[in-house]
């Protein structure tokens, strides 16, 4: 095992890898709580049960997809970079595809499955790099930042810190309400933990907020500590059903946009995380990432597996940087993280205390982390600032990640053309322009 992962060459040992793997798990364990709540649309009232995914099944799918994806990354690419269903992508899945577009969750899973299969093909063929390189860096940053604002807005809504207002659309909620106060306390606690650099700060923020909620009677106490693993039957294989039972819902322009969005966001989530964490760990060779193909294959394969199990896109997690900071340098840390994800299956009863007020701080802080790269956009160049700004601001204001991407991708060729920088626009960007124009004409 030591030889396979090259412990001596990388200056690591079992103890460092174990601590690194544990730290990574604690840093991203919040997804076990947030993903089932998000995909089941638990915070949305008066919604038909048919539109909701089964909470327990999604929990199992989340844990298993994270474990398998993390294990694949560790064994194939040998990187200490864990995978799990991605924040932002799950919000797009639930709030845009299901809630706004009205697409059944089974068909949405089919979209995730197709995007994963396409990702695998593009990775094996080498086309993936061409598509990524065709999109300007500023728009890549804008997409991540826009999703961050969107997630923060969802968190504020879930906590009822921000509520609807007939006069001005949105306004401040009732700060005297117990659930709102709990969420605010949770935000303060999580901010303190993250500011102090506590590994797993988001996870511990949820934990402490939940305990405070139980002590004050704002949230219910758990029915138990350990319990039987929920059935995955309600979601397992559901992604395959629409292909055979209702192909007319799958092969549409609307679904094409959905699939492209899943694919696009996963592209850049993965690429950015791989490069960033590898640089932190000192694993880059010059300006290249060794075994990049295997890493991307692990990521795309995990998305396919996750879709079949019953969860949104599985992607590389930037929280892996916490594990690297704690000493992880090889894929052995991923084996530790994967085992911990599987063990978490037996602690499902604890999730009963995790209400919207408890998880909202995590959503808000994840949004802060995702917006952190906004400084990489050259705001002094108006032709760049306009599409980037429209991409970012449109996501929370239209409550749609796809709409934000579409608006930005339409304005980019326009501003660059008018500025006389037409040669700098890759032909693929014109293809995106046509796709999104058709999307707004025929779909919205």
TrEMBL record:
Q: Which superkingdom does the taxonomy of this entry point to?
A: Bacteria
Q: Mind telling me which InterPro entries this protein's record contains?
A: Azg-like, Azg-like_bact_archaea, NCS2
Where's it found, cell-wise?
Cell membrane
Q: Which PANTHER family match?
A: GUANINE_HYPOXANTHINE PERMEASE PBUG (PTHR43337:SF11), XANTHINE/URACIL PERMEASE C887.17-RELATED (PTHR43337)
The family line of this record is:
Belongs to the nucleobase:cation symporter-2 (NCS2) (TC 2.A.40) family. Azg-like subfamily.
This protein is called AGZA family xanthine/uracil permease-like MFS transporter
| Keywords annotated in UniProt | Cell membrane, Membrane, Transmembrane, Transmembrane helix, Transport
> Which is one Pfam family of this protein?
Xan_ur_permease
Q: Which residues cross the membrane?
A: 18-37, 57-76, 83-103, 109-127, 139-158, 178-195, 202-220, 251-275, 330-351, 358-377, 389-413, 425-443
The membrane topology noted for this protein in its Swiss-Prot or TrEMBL record is: Multi-pass membrane protein
């Amino acid at each position: 095992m030591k030889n396979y992962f090259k412990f001596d060459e990388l200056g690591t040992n079992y103890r460092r890898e174990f601590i690194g793997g544990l730290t990574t798990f604690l840093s991203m364990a919040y997804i076990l709580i947030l993903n089932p709540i998000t995909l089941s649309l638990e915070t949305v009232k008066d919604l038909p049960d048919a539109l909701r995914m089964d909470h327990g099944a999604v929990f199992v799918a989340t844990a298993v997809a994270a474990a398998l994806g993390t294990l694949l990354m560790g064994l194939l690419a040998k990187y200490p970079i864990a995978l799990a269903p991605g924040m932002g992508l799950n919000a797009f899945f639930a709030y845009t595809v299901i809630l706004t577009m009205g697409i059944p969750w089974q068909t949405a899973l089919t979209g995730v499955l197709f995007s994963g299969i396409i990702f695998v093909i593009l990775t094996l063929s080498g086309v993936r790099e061409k598509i990524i390189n065709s999109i300007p860096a500023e728009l890549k940053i804008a997409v991540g930042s826009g999703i961050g604002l969107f997630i923060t807005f969802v968190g504020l809504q879930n906590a009822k810190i921000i509520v609807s207002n007939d006069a001005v659309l949105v306004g401040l909620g009732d700060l005297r309400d117990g659930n709102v106060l709990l969420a605010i306390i949770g935000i303060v606690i999580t901010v303190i933990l993250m500011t102090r650099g506590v590994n797993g700060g988001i996870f511990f923020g949820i934990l402490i907020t939940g305990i405070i909620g139980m002590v004050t009677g704002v949230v219910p106490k758990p029915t138990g500590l350990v319990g039987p693993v929920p059935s995955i039957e309600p979601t397992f294989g559901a992604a395959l059903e629409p292909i055979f039972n209702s192909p007319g819902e799958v092969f549409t322009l609307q679904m094409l946009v959905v699939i492209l969005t899943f694919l696009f966001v996963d592209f850049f989530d993965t690429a950015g995380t791989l490069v960033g964490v590898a640089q932190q760990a000192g694993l880059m060779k010059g300006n290249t990432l060794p075994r990049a193909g295997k890493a991307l294959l692990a990521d795309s394969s995990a998305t396919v597996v996750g879709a079949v199990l019953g969860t949104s896109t599985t992607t590389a997690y930037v929280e892996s940087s916490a594990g690297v900071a704690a000493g992880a340098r090889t894929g052995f840390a991923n084996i530790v993280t994967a085992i911990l994800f599987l063990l978490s299956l037996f602690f499902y009863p604890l999730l009963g205390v995790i209400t919207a007020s408890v998880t909202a701080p995590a959503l808000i802080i994840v949004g802060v982390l995702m917006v952190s790269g906004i400084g990489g956009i050259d705001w002094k160049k108006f032709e760049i600032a306009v599409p980037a700004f429209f991409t970012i601001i449109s996501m929370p204001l239209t409550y749609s990640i796809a709409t934000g991407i579409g608006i930005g991708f339409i304005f980019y060729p326009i501003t660059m053309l008018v500025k006389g920088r037409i040669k700098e626009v890759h032909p693929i960007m014109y293809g995106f322009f046509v796709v999104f124009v058709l999307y707004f004409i025929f779909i919205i």
